[in-house]
Specification:
Elements: E1 17-22, E2 28-33, E3 59-62, H1 69-75, H2 81-88, H3 90-93, E4 105-108, E5 138-139, E6 158-161, E7 167-169, E8 174-181, E9 187-193, E10 198-204, E11 206-207, E12 214-215, E13 220-223, E14 235-240, E15 248-249, H4 251-257
Antiparallel strand pairs: 1-2, 3-4, 5-6, 6-14, 7-13, 8-9, 8-12, 9-10, 10-14, 11-13, 14-15
Helix pairs in contact: 1-2
Length: about 260
């Protein structure tokens, strides 16, 4: 019988439970079991996975007025600069990297796929991208007007009658191949366009562009005047198949073919 005043000591809840297993030679070994409150399931280390980043999708950029490959490369953060941009888009730009025009689609981020060959299908002229070289002018001497005052025996362009100081504008985007004083033409500008044709603007009083510069449709080239061999102020305007005199074609017909009304 237990002594009076004594209480049986309760089992401690903090002790771990044990199990008995047979040991060597029949000896029993007590092994602790973790209590439910302190047990943690062992979890294997998470397997390392390699995430492959997909290459950035190519981006299509439409050239805007005033753009150059150098400017586009900077704004679009092209690695490799304008040379890489040109290399990736040479099939679209052509052999002259300076000759890009509004609306031209450039691929940013990877090389553009070469266009698939297709049968030639002429497109109707829309007039987009072309304008008159001078606004509010009347037509003076027409193209092919015969006369001994011209070395070719006829007028190689069309004259727009305007007072000195009238703004003269590029009919379309292109690259200035020459700008300066040129004999009987006085101050002139010659521009190469995307279709391979050249436009010439003569007898100007002042020039605001220089050789090698890229221009946009409607960009001011200078002011009209009466420099060179003239009888009064006007703009002499030509369309040529080369940058040189003697390769003229009908400038009025050329503008009309591009949707410009004279």
């Amino acid at each position: 019988m237990p002594a009076k005043g004594k209480h049986r000591r309760p089992k401690s809840q903090g002790f771990a439970r044990t199990i008995v297993v047979a040991g060597v030679g029949g000896a029993a070994l007590a092994l602790p079991l973790l209590g439910a409150t302190g047990a943690h399931a062992a979890t294997p280390a998470a397997a390392h996975s390699v995430v492959k980043t997909a290459p950035a999708a190519a981006k299509i950029y439409a050239v805007k007025g005033g753009d150059t490959l150098s400017k586009i490369a900077v704004v679009q953060n092209v690695s490799g600069g304008w040379k890489k941009l040109y290399s990736d888009n040479r099939s679209a730009v052509g052999d002259n990297p300076s000759l890009i025009h509004p609306g031209l689609k450039l691929t940013i981020g990877q090389k553009a796929a070469a266009p698939a060959p297709q049968a030639f299908a002429p497109k109707a002229a829309t007039g987009a991208g072309y304008t008159l070289p001078v606004q509010g002018a009347s037509i003076g001497t027409a193209y092919k007007t015969a006369g001994s005052m011209w070395s070719s025996g006829y007028h190689t362009g069309v004259d727009f009658v305007v007072p000195t100081g009238t703004p003269i504008k590029a009919i379309a985007a292109g690259t200035v191949v020459s700008a300066g004083l040129h004999g009987a033409y006085g101050n002139e500008v010659v521009i190469q366009h995307a279709d391979g044709k050249y436009s010439q603007y003569a007898h100007m009083s002042s020039l605001s562009v220089s050789s090698g510069q890229t221009v946009t449709e409607g960009q001011q080239l200078g002011l009209s005047g009466a420099t060179g061999n003239v009888t009064g102020p006007h703009l002499h305007f030509e369309i040529r198949t080369t940058p040189s005199y003697g390769s003229d074609v009908d400038p009025a017909a050329y503008l009309r073919a591009h949707g410009v009304s004279l």
